[in-house]
Recover the amino acids of this structure.
């Protein structure tokens, strides 16, 4: 092999072996109705309080301050998105024809064995869809599919005050519960759809994610 190709090949192999940390940010959606987004954020905070799964302290503090402000500013919807986007594992976009795409979000893909982790899915909804966002994938565990090949339980949280359905507004934040049943670095392909199932592949999107599943003893203090 030519010597000049070795450095590039080494970098490629390192990139393939490294865990997926996600992209730095998700696109900010313009023309978002503040009242709807504010109501979403309030329900989300209540749900996270009930689940005892708070956002990082700094994010939680700033988010509550924005929601409590009496005089909303023009850029408040963008500020709310920036705060929540950092907690998003995936960004899902639905175009006006209801075609769905998915992209990796900024949240770190670290899980704890047999323990639930809650992450957000940002949905940019240009079609005004109000159906439930559903999740599937070949590595997901169900009642019918178990074993090491189906190592990840994943479900959209739909218990009150959340519903699991999209609001029809331009932006929704959907809460996702993940429970890994096998430890180590494992990849899962997450598939999202908005009610059309497999009738039309255009209504479904998927994104592969390399997770780092740690045992309790492996976690840093």
């Amino acid at each position: 092999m030519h010597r000049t190709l070795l450095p590039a090949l080494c970098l490629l192999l390192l990139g393939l072996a490294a865990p997926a940390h996600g992209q730095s940010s998700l696109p900010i959606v313009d023309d978002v109705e503040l009242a709807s987004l504010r109501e979403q954020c309030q329900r989300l905070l209540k749900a996270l309080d009930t689940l005892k799964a708070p956002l990082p302290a700094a994010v939680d503090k700033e988010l509550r301050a924005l929601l409590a402000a009496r005089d909303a500013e023009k850029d408040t919807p963008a500020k709310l998105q920036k705060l929540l986007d950092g907690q998003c594992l995936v960004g899902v976009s639905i175009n006006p024809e209801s075609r769905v795409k998915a992209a990796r979000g900024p949240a770190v893909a670290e899980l704890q064995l047999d323990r639930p982790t809650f992450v957000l899915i940002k949905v940019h909804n240009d079609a005004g869809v109000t159906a439930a966002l559903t999740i599937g994938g070949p590595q997901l565990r169900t009642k019918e599919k178990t074993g090491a090949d189906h190592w990840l339980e994943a479900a959209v949280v739909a218990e009150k005050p959340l519903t699991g359905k999209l609001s029809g507004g331009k932006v929704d934040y959907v809460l996702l519960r993940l429970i890994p049943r096998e430890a180590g670095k494992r990849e899962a392909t997450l598939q999202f759809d908005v009610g059309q199932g497999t009738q039309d592949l255009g209504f479904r999107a998927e994104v592969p994610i390399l997770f780092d599943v740690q045992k309790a003893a492996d976690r840093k203090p």
Q: What stands out?
A: Strands lie at 88-94, 100-104, 110-112, 117-125, 134-136, 152-156, 171-180, 184-193, 204-214. The two ends are 45 Å apart (CA to CA). Residues 23-218 form a domain with the Immunoglobulin-like fold (CATH 2.60.40.10). Residues 29 and 146 are 38 Å apart (CA to CA).
